[in-house]
Amino acid sequence: MISGLIRLVIVILVLLLLGASAPGAQSARPEIRAYRLTESESIVVDGAPDEAAWQKAIPATNFLQRDPDNGTAATEKTEVRVVFDRDRIILGVICFDSEPDKLLGNQMQRDQPFSGDDRFMFSIDPFLDGRTGYFFEINPSGAMGDGLITSPTGGGGFGGDMQKSWDGIWVARVRRTSVGWTAEIEVPFKTVNFDPNTDTWGANFQRTVKRKNEESLWTGWLRDEGLTRMSNAGRIGGIEDISQGIGLDLKPYLLGAAGNAPGRNAPDTSGDIDVGLDAFYNVTPSLKANFTLNTDFAETEVDERRTNLTRFPLFFPEKREFFLDGSNFFEFPGGDESPFFSRRIGLNAGAPQPIFYGAKLVGQAGRQDIGFLQVSTSEDEFERGGTLVQLKGEDFTVARVKRRFGSQSSAGAIYTRRAPRDSLVDARHTAGADVTIATPDFIRESTLDSGAWFVHTSKPQFINEDRAAPPEGQSYSYGWHASVAKDPYRAEVSFKEVQPAYDPAIGFTPRRNFRNWSPELNWSPRFSGHRWFRGVQISGDLDVNLTLDNQVIDRNLQFTPMELEFHSGDTIELQFFRQTENLDEEFEISDGVFLPTGESYDWLRYQIVYEAAEQRMLSGRFEFSGGKFWSGDRRELNMELTLRPRPGIFLQLASEYNDVDLPEGSFTTRLYRFDARTQFNPWISLTNNVQFDSESGELGWQLRFRWIQKPGNDIFFIWTQNWLDTESGGRFSQLDRRGAAKIVRTFRF
């Protein structure tokens, strides 16, 4: 059955590609030349590109629409000029607007979503390799966002995949005018890595006019291209004789913290004052070293709580700055079974373990991408379930190298080591290799993204201090994937196998001892000239997990007959799910509710989703699903309501509710989340995050104040407090509370 389905996907894929009418050749690559400032010329970054030097730079203009009218001229004109000196590159942007009183700029906090605002975005490829780069965005209120472009595909409508967690040092200023809004954006060469042997960078620009839901680009306007697909970027020439200075950044911090935990057997208040240091050094303009001493993550935002009714652990993304910076150089395929997951370092059951030091080397050397990480954690202890748990200090090593070839292809290897100190547990090793074959010029100008990987892990005598032995069997995993896209079609198929003893010590492995097949088809036609509707998406995907002797463990068929997009930005989605589960072990789905081993289950569910356009003052998301579930029934209702009464104020209330009725037992789950963000200006923000879930019975509150005195210099104040619902009736007892103040300074040489 499975092999027949895979063959069907491949046949449909070929027919779609051969039968589709091409919307046009790859969009042309325009080019501008950056103007070099003379010693007598200067630019004051104040949001008004009115100095005489700006008129000497030829602007990038003639933007074309990506949406709604693909390939036609933008309805609002945009001009982008580029100047530079030895230390920085500066963009001068003029966003003309026929209705400047209707500009949208509600977001003012750095690195928060701008999807409900007008905005200007740009991407740069300082290596001119067409694969990776940097992403920057601003809105008319001066809010700033940035990210790393990590691969040429996988970024949805943007094109290349991005990591928005990167936090670079750069400056932007904006002004609103009678003809629209203007901006000046300064990026120091110390902030980005680049190839010193070329004077040309890849670049692209994109403008959002939100009231029209219009997206226009300088180049890469075809729907299967995009701003961050750097193989379609334009060119900025003339960038030469530039410098990163000594290339040394020193970033010390001072921290004061105090707290107690009466609900966790630590009622006495204790406090401490701590200092630490991050040092960054550009070994070459394209290779950066980072050293951290006595690392602290007090300012990190709390994880978003989620309800888990599956048999396997959920994935929570990394949020700590040290591990986020340069994380793209450690990426390895494999999906959930990746051999490297940085949250396995310095975190135990979500609680932080002190990091004594860390060292990192990331960047490019010739055609090689390089990532090296060494971290040492300190001994620690914490309470779990009333028991004091002792944590051994450990040493972690990660090495990743990848050689680029062709336009977007590569081959690489990874190695990890985890070694507890003073422990009977042996050091655990992981080694893997991968290859990626990708091109934007596949059959009939379609995009191909394919690859394969293999990972092997060692089997120590003991896997913990209790002398537990590793599972029997082989300890490797491997897989492959292939996807082809040509607007409005996309098809993908992937396979992976994970052996029973596979255990990457610094990886994320939710399940073992299975094979997985996952084909997917997607068709996204657009309507031409329709009064209300912009487009629709129809898709189907199958996810099948088999035993190693090819018996079905579980199967999930998902069909979306309609995801309808309105010109207003609203969407309505209808989905059907057909799930099959064969339990090979007992499953406790809720406290005291057990599904027995050996039973087979098959059920059908439906889901409807409505999402209101984010540019409205009041927007939200409504999601309802119902139908069978395991041996009984389940109703799920998720709601999200967002209020933006004025720029700088963001209020969001979200809830998740599950009502499950099974012969083995009935139960409900509830999760509530309230997020209140006050942004006094683009540099000062106050965030309150309150969460409660009925599974843990815990109510949590985090207050986070951030003052960016200038990029790289921050003051934080964080207050975290947790309570326990003792009677399931709204009476809470305090678990813990902690306050911390942190000052960070950056010195650049």
Structural summary, described in words:
By secondary structure, this protein is mainly beta. Among the domains are: 26-237, Sandwich (Immunoglobulin-like); 313-510, no CATH class. The chain contains two helices and 45 strands. The strands form six sheets. The protein has a 24-stranded antiparallel barrel. Strands 1, 3, 6, 7, 8, 9, 12, 13 and 14 form a nine-stranded mixed sheet that branches. β39 and β40 form a beta hairpin. The longest helix has 18 residues, at 2-19. Mean pLDDT is 90; it is low at 11-25.
Given the C-alpha coordinates, what overall shape results?
globular
Average pLDDT number: 90
Residue share in helices? under 10%
Largest sheet: 24 strands, antiparallel, barrel
| Percent range for β-strand residues | over 45%
What gyration radius follows from the Cα positions, in whole Å?
27 Å
Quickly give the CATH architecture of the domain at 26-237.
Sandwich
**CATH C-level category of the domain at 26-237:** Mainly Beta
The computed structural class is: mainly beta
Number of strands: 45
Unreliable runs: 11-25
Give the N-terminus to C-terminus distance in angstroms.
Answer: 63 Å
Number of helices: 2
Which fold name corresponds to the CATH topology of the domain at 26-237? Answer: Immunoglobulin-like
Could you give the topology of this structure?
Layout: H1 2-19, E1 31-33, E2 35-36, E3 64-67, E4 78-84, E5 88-96, E6 119-125, E7 133-138, E8 144-154, E9 160-163, E10 171-177, E11 180-188, E12 201-209, E13 214-217, E14 234-237, E15 248-261, E16 266-284, E17 287-295, H2 321-324, E18 347-348, E19 351-352, E20 355-365, E21 368-377, E22 380-384, E23 387-391, E24 394-405, E25 409-420, E26 428-439, E27 447-457, E28 476-486, E29 489-498, E30 514-523, E31 533-546, E32 552-566, E33 571-582, E34 587-590, E35 593-595, E36 600-611, E37 618-629, E38 632-643, E39 649-662, E40 665-681, E41 684-693, E42 698-710, E43 713-725, E44 732-744, E45 747-748
Parallel strand pairs: 1-14, 2-4
Antiparallel strand pairs: 3-13, 4-5, 5-11, 6-7, 6-12, 7-8, 8-9, 10-11, 12-13, 12-14, 15-16, 15-44, 15-45, 16-17, 17-20, 18-19, 20-21, 21-24, 22-23, 24-25, 25-26, 26-27, 27-28, 28-29, 29-30, 30-31, 31-32, 32-33, 33-36, 34-35, 36-37, 37-38, 38-39, 39-40, 40-41, 41-42, 42-43, 43-44
